[in-house]
Amino acid sequence: MGAVTLAAIKIGWIMFGWEPWQTVIVAIVVTVVYSALGGQTGVIWTDCFQFFIAMFGAFMAAYYAVSHEAVGGLSNLITHPNVAGRLSLLPDFNDYTVLVPVLLMPIMVQWWSVWYPGAEPGGGGYLVQRMLSAKSENHAVGATLFFNAAHYALRPWPWIIVALASCIVFPDLASIAERFPEARPDLIRHDIAYPAMLAELLPAGLMGIVIASLAAAYMSTIATHLNWGSSYVVNDFYKRFIKPGASEKELVWIGRISTVVLMALAAALVLSGFLENAKRAFDLMLQIGAGTGLLFIMRWFWWRINAYSEIAAMTVSFLVACFFEFAAPKIGFMGLNYVAEIGWMKLLIGVIITTFAWIEVTLLTQPADKESLYAFYRKIRPSGPGWDKVIADARAEGVDLKDHKKHSTNLPLGIVCMALGCLSIYGALFATGYWIYGKTVAAVVLTILAVVSTGALWLFWRRLDKMTDIDFDAA
Question: Hey, CA dihedral for 192, 193, 198, 201, is it positive or negative?
Answer without folding.
Answer: positive
